[in-house]
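Q: I'm a student working through a structural biology exercise. My instructor gave each of us a protein and asked us to get a predicted structure, then write a short paragraph describing it. Mine is KWG Leptospira. I'm not confident about reading structure output yet, so if you can add a plain explanation after the tokens, that would really help. Here is the sequence I was given:
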Amino acid sequence: MKIRISLNGEWRQLKKDGKYGVINKTGKVLIPFEYDSYLFPIAKGIFMIEVNGKYGAISDDGRVLIPIQYDFISEFYHDVAKVELNGETFYIDKQGNRLP
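A: Happy to help. First, here is the predicted structure for KWG Leptospira. I'll explain a few features afterward.
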């Protein structure tokens, strides 16, 4: 079992039976062990996920916040992330809304 611990110690990412998930410091599962690739933290309580070569974001309570459709998604900076979709680059907010 692989373990990655957050810098503030509030969560731990584990790989169990070949799948990644996230637990809190008491052992409660926050994000189920359903993902084939590493879950990268891109904002407090938000993780980038990859499914079949497309990226999106999931909250630390397991809700998909940003649809898994992007070719690339950056970390959030001031609540804004840069994404790429079908060769087009633009910015979105934490709810996945495209910004002008």
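A: Here are two points you could use in your paragraph. The chain has one domain: 2-92. The mean pLDDT is 87. It's a good idea to check both against the output above yourself.
Q: Great, thank you!
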